[in-house]
Design goal:
Layout (H helix, E strand, L loop, with lengths): L6 E6 L8 H5 L2 H6 L2 E6 L3 H10 L4 E6 H9 L4 E9 L4 E5 L10 H4 L4 E4 L4 H13 L7 E4 L3 H10 L4 E5 L1 H8 L3 E2 L3 H6 L5 E7 H6 L1 H20 L1 H12 L3 H9 L6 H5 L7 H15 L10
Parallel strand pairs: 1-2, 1-3, 6-7, 6-8
Antiparallel strand pairs: 3-10, 4-10, 5-8, 5-9
Helix pairs in contact: 3-4, 4-15, 7-8, 12-13
Amino acid sequence: APSGLDELNVAYFLEWPTANQVAQVEQTYDSVLGLTVNWIAFPSGNDMALAMESGDIDISYSQGLTPFANYVTSGADHVIVGVAVSYADADNCVAHPDYAVSQDNAASSLAGQAIYTPIGNVTHFKLLKMLEHLGVSLDDVSLIPSEGGPAAVAAFENGDVAMACAFGGAINTMLASGGNLVMTGSEQEALGIRVFDIISAPRSFAEEHGDVVTAFLQVTEDANAAYAADRASLETTIADAAGMDLAGTSSLLDAFTFLDSDSQLSEAWLGGTVQAAMKEQMDFFVAQGEIDTALDS
């Protein structure tokens, strides 16, 4: 085994279908790395960060940028080693049909209402930017902290909230139940909002086991290339790994882009844009009073 490791503990999300799950299921990671790779499902990127802090997780696959930045801002020594997936349309807020919320009337239709949302992740950041754009004052709405996708769907279907924000399969479920998007992912991207997940690791692990991290990224790169060449034949395997049906998997994958390493290393991503997006989010959270202070870079 490389560098004295017997096992590699990798955090991931269920109901979040990614191209590398073929390599996860077929244990390509295990055979290439010469390690037992344990894939451990987490409810949120914040939980992934905590598990990296405690040493329970070596690599987080598809951790959100915002939880990563929040933890690093508060002193965690974690590093970004890659971009997992870009997904403007797979993360959004869905309005309940009874409230008839649109871009034109949001300032009035959401006044006095409750919105169900994760706190301290990109979904929350997008929501705050969207409310700001639509002229909705935060004083006029109450934000209810989310306990995850299924809880968001339940709050939405009960009609308890005017809008529920989530990522992944929960979005499709709420739209299928008659909900509507107040703004599309591409409309939000036009506001300059970048939505992507990263591959991260504790700095100590990345420095001590750079060979393992590099090999992990190469298996991921190869899986992404295989998916790009022939997505259709791989969807069933990915759906099973994600714990989803084929239709739900397919519609999420339509919203996902898996970047090759050249793209990841370019100016558009790890060559500057990722850093700028992180800085903008943290400065925004400071301005909103969510965190006290942001790092300089």
